[in-house]
Amino acid sequence: MEIILYVSAAVAAIAFLVLVIFLTKVLTSLQTTLDSVARTLTGLESQMQGITLETTQLLHKTNTLAEDLQQKSENLNTVVDAVKDVGTSISSFNSSIQKVSHKVQAEIDNNQGRISQIVQWSNVAMEIRDKWKSRSKQAAPTPTERAELEREALETDNLPKKRFLRSRS
Fold it and tell me: Which H, E and C letters describe the chain, residue by residue?
């Protein structure tokens, strides 16, 4: 029975030795993996520092760009206000022209009869001037010519009077 004890102790020692060998292999493999992870983390850390630096620079550039956009927006607001003022000025100018146009239209409508009389009188005056010029170019007219001229003058005075009407829109 003692042999069984020695054999079982030897089997237990061999089993323990196998266990230790396998544990050693696992721990060695784990050590290699952890070393690799440590190297990767070191590289990752240096890359993160570079990324952090670039991100900081990008943030500064973004802030500068935002300030520039703000200034340009304010300048653009003044331009928009100026254009708005020009539009208001043009609108008031148009309304002033419309008021003047309406006043002129009303005055023309009110004075239509006077205007037609002025046109008729100016036509008569032009005819008289033309006759006067033709008389001054000719020698003194004979009594028959004088009677003919007077008859023509009477005929032109008896012509129907034309009124100048303007189309209304």
Answer: CHHHHHHHHHHHHHHHHHHHHHHHHHHHHHHHHHHHHHHHHHHHHHHHHHHHHHHHHHHHHHHHHHHHHHHHHHHHHHHHHHHHHHHHHHHHHHHHHHHHHHHHHHHHHHCHHHHHHHHHHHHHHHHHHHHHHHHHHCCCCCHHHHHHHHHHHHHHHCCCCCCCCCCCC
pLDDT tens digits, residue range 94-148?
A: 999 999 998 888 888 888 888 888 888 898 899 888 888 887 776 565 677 777 8
- Residue from 127, 107, 108 nearest 165 by CA: 108
